């Protein structure tokens, strides 16, 4: 309180000096433009038209001083208006009539903050999403178009393991956000791949928090370098879509801190996103948007986050039915927890907040703190700076960025006898699979983008000069178009959050396929999967390959192999599918992901050898779904309408489980082949004993015949005397530049004390045990090239924290 008194006094004194010593010159304004005041050569805007210079209008004062002056003047009604979003047009489909939803300045944006003319505070705009800006591409009575670039989905971006490239992607996204008049992009999304069936895994990056955090930090740095903000989401432990507004996740504090918060911690510390979005779910019995330990203690006090926290849209409501009944979220608890902005904001919340302020149920101190943070955000925005956006981002340059990023994120899963690259443009190519013609750019829901056009595999191969079997093309194209229309109609009938379904494959008889095998040199077969916000995937016909797909692969493989020809499968998918049962039937598998709008070009760049694939898996592909450590605890209980989910696997998520419990995957974490080969030598540590940090250096040499890049992964195996630990954990990674045949590069990767530490709940501390640590340097979590070790002389307490996330029900965690 004392500080506030001093600050306010300072403002009053400054204002008094301004008013007593300087002469005035007022310029009249009109209805839209407030008048200007000139004082001794300085010009200011008289926002409230009172004919005098108020402190918040005085641009010579610091931002803090101006914000203090605004808050001091604000009424309770104005504070309530500031702390609640301005609504989202069209949301009534889900909620029923909820009151006035203002269309913001940018049609199709997800919402924003309110304007306060008397303080010169404009309305700001926030918009989705993780694969690029999502706004309306066309507008009423406007002949112009507002298409945005559809970038590769999160799984594809993370699979590049290339921080510099990811920052370029962020810059391209930021360019579109800024030039279309948006202030904050609601991205990136970095929840952990706890289970392969999560319908939004395509938006997220990995089963590993280091990959998730480093990927998100690079993208945030890129976006924010353009002068616009980001909102990292969904904070936290939001790892399924089933009953996402109400599901109660039971998770130990150790698993929360080591696995589910770690990526967010890295992102906050390495990129300072403008905003964080709290998640829908309950965590150990309480909504995340109402948890002070999460939003204040950990996020602000421990990590030093400086921005605002906003809810996910309708976060804290127990389902849309409660909104339809006219109920409110617990606005007081959300504000006290440190959730500054309630989105998208509805009148019932505003009313509840105003009543709480008037009655003293919500203190002025809390409301002022939250309001201050929102005003600090507004003062940073392009809208506040009156940036004249062009509505003309650099779409052609950004298309080039997405094409290159998609190619670099592609993972070569299999390549027997160098089936790829296939560069022969004279010989005929057969292209099978409905998805080759109905290409999937990205998933559905808030992670989708309204882009102008998607380059299909058909278009990509054609543009690259391949000679395609015309009869097949003429059969597939109308079939694919018909199936796409049917799928769109089906989704339209099912409403706003209808989930996409796999398109059925075209039936072909053996004789027809044999004819193609005789005339074509190679078969490309695309298998496609899509998913989206609002629901999770299923095992049958989605995670598992469908019978008709198996039949198609069997027929094509038999016919082409009988003629000594190759079969290449292209996976146009957002997340993990089962591969073990069919991978031996084909010669090569290229995991193309959902690679954004230029996807067909990107695939052609890789299969032709123009680009050597260098992507690596950021998640494990299990042999079968039941091998997944969370399989028996997903999506929760009761089975048909889950209310709770227990994270019994603890820290043993993904490769931490497969490696520790010796469960063999189909493709392991970190795996990815290349058209060339690499040799690892000279693995050295900067010291045999750990002090403050340790550097691991490794030399990588291209020992093959074509240029390529390699991802080097550093895993750590730590002593486990005081607590059980995974067999090894990824602690650092780096990617070489493009190495020519015979060329070498030495990478240096640093380990910090926290990289050595595990979280001990009984001590509320991150502890690095004394003893011997093994450093495993490899090309994947299984393909370890070199092992070395160092010692820690005595136990290091890296960080002490306050106990948080008390369990609301006891359960037994998995231990080796």
Could you write a compact summary of the structure shown?
The protein has 816 residues and is α/β, with parallel strands linked by helices. Helices cover 31% and strands 19% of the residues.
Question: Mind explaining what this structure looks like?
Answer:
The chain is of the alpha/beta class. It is 31% helix and 19% strand. It contains 24 helices and 31 strands. The strands form eight sheets. It has a six-stranded mixed sheet with strand order 4-5-8-9-11-14. A six-stranded mixed sheet has the order 15-20-19-18-16-17, sandwiched between helices. Strands 13-12-10-21 form a four-stranded mixed sheet, with no helix packed on it. Strand 22 and strand 23 form a beta hairpin. Helix 2 packs across helix 14, helix 17 packs across helix 22 and helix 19 crosses helix 21. The longest helix has 25 residues. The protein is globular and about 85 Å long. The two termini are 52 Å apart.
């Amino acid at each position: 309180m004392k500080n506030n008194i001093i600050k306010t006094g300072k403002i009053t004194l400054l204002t008094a000096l301004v008013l007593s010593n300087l002469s005035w010159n007022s310029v009249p304004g009109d209805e839209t433009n407030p008048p200007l005041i000139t004082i001794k050569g300085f010009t200011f805007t008289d926002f409230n038209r009172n004919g005098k210079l108020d402190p918040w209008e005085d641009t010579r004062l610091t931002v803090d001083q101006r914000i203090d002056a605004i808050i001091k003047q604000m009424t309770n009604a104005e504070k309530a208006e500031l702390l609640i979003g301005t609504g989202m047009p069209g949301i009534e489909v889900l909620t029923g009539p909820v009151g006035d939803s203002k269309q913001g300045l940018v049609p199709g944006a997800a919402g924003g903050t309110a304007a306060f003319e008397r303080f010169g505070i404009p309305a700001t705009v926030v918009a989705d999403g993780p694969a690029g800006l999502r706004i309306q591409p066309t507008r009423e009575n406007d002949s112009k178009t507002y298409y945005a670039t559809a970038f590769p989905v999160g799984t594809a971006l993370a699979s590049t393991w290339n921080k510099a490239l990811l920052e370029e992607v962020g810059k391209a996204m930021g360019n579109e956000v800024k030039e279309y008049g948006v202030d904050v992009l609601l991205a990136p999304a970095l929840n952990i791949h706890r289970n392969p069936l999560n319908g939004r895994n395509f938006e997220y990056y990995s089963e590993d928090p280091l990959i998730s955090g480093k990927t998100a930090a690079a993208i945030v740095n890129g976006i924010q370098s353009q002068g616009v903000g980001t909102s990292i989401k969904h904070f936290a432990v939001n790892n399924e879509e089933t009953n996402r507004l109400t599901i109660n996740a039971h998770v130990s504090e150790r698993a929360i801190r080591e696995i589910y918060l770690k990526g967010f911690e890295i992102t906050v510390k390495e990129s300072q996103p403008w905003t964080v979005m709290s998640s829908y779910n309950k965590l150990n019995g309480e909504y995340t948007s109402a948890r002070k330990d999460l939003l204040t203690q950990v996020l602000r006090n421990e990590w030093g986050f400086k921005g605002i926290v906003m809810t996910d849209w309708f976060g804290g409501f127990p389902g849309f039915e409660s909104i339809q009944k006219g109920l409110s979220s617990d606005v007081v608890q959300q504000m006290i927890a440190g959730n500054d902005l309630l989105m998208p904001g509805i009148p019932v919340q505003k009313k509840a907040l105003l009543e709480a302020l008037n009655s003293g149920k919500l203190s002025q101190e809390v409301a002022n703190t939250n309001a201050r943070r929102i005003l600090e955000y507004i003062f940073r925005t392009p809208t506040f700076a009156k940036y004249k956006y062009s509505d003309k981002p650099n779409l052609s340059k950004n298309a080039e960025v997405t094409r290159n990023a998609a190619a670099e994120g592609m993972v070569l899963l299999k390549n027997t006898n160098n089936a790829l690259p296939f560069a022969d443009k004279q010989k005929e190519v057969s292209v099978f699979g409905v998805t080759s013609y109905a290409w999937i750019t990205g998933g559905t829901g808030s992670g989708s983008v309204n882009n102008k056009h998607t380059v299909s595999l058909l278009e990509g191969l054609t543009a690259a000069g391949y000679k395609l079997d015309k009869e097949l093309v003429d059969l597939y194209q109308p079939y694919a178009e018909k199936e796409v229309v049917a799928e769109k109609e089906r989704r339209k009938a099912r409403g706003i959050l209808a989930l996409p379904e796999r398109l059925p494959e075209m039936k072909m008889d053996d004789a027809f396929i044999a004819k193609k095998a005789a005339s074509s040199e190679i078969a490309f077969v695309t298998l496609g999967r899509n998913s989206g916000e609002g629901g999770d995937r299923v095992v049958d016909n989605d995670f598992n390959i469908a019978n008709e797909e198996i039949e198609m692969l069997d027929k094509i493989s038999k016919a082409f192999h009988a003629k000594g020809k190759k079969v290449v499968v292209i996976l146009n998918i957002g997340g993990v599918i089962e591969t073990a049962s069919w991978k031996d039937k084909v010669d090569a598998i290229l995991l193309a992901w959902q690679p954004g709008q230029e996807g067909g070009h990107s695939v052609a760049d890789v299969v032709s050898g123009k680009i050597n694939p260098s992507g690596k898996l950021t998640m494990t592909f299990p042999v079968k779904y039941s091998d997944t450590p969370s399989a028996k605890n997903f999506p929760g209980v009761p089975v048909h309408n889950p209310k709770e989910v227990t994270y019994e696997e603890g820290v043993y998520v993904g490769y931490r489980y497969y490696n520790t419990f010796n469960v063999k995957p189909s493709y392991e974490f970190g795996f990815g082949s290349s058209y060339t080969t690499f040799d690892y030598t000279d693995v050295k540590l900067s010291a045999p004993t750990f002090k403050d940090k340790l550097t691991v250096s490794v030399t990588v040499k291209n020992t093959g015949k074509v240029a390529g890049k390699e991802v080097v992964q550093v895993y750590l195996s730590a002593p486990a005397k005081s607590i059980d630990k995974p067999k090894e954990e990824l602690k650092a990674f780096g990617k070489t530049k493009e190495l020519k045949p015979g060329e070498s590069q030495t990478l240096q990767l640093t380990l910090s004390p926290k990289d050595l530490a595990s979280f001990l709940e009984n001590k509320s501390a991150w502890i690095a045990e004394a003893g011997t640590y093994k450093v495993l340097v490899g090309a994947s979590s299984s393909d370890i090239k070199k092992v070395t070790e160092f010692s820690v002389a005595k136990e290091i307490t890296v960080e002490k924290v306050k106990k948080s996330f008390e369990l609301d029900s006891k359960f037994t965690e998995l231990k080796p």
